[in-house]
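Quick question, first post here. What does this chain look like in 3D?
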Amino acid sequence: MYSQINEPQQRLAKDFIKVTIINDTIENIVWYIILGVLFYLDHMLEWKEWIGWVLISIAIISVIASIWSFISPFLVYKNWRYDVSEEFVQLKSGAIREDHHLIPMTKIQAVSTVQGPLLKKYGLCTISIKTIGTSHTIPALPKEAAVELRNQIAAFAKIKEVE
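> Answer (accepted):
Ran it through. Tokens below.
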């Protein structure tokens, strides 16, 4: 008999939204500087006319992507859930297309915490879970909770491996 698997309930840290928006803003600024240099070179070097139209198309797509980058963190935060039991790590995400992953503890090969400069500033960590074929992450958890969860997953994975 199969036991009932409940929907995951644990949420990401609220600062996930702030960190993601800051990160996306930095990426957008760098991208727009590169795009600006390309427009300048197109103007100064008088490249072929079609290159200017391609750059304009890229700029329009970039503006739309930038607007989306300020909306998506709210959707991700609202819809991202995780849970850990002795048998599985459950990950659920997606506002439009829902992804629900059940990762058996017996398949987990490595689990680690990752902390970049922005995550460190806000006291957050991302958990990385590696299996034979894939890698999964639980983004932006408070550092203490992330370390505790990493250790719990490692312990459960080892228990299942020994049995």
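Residues 15-76 form one domain.
The longest helix spans residues 15-45.
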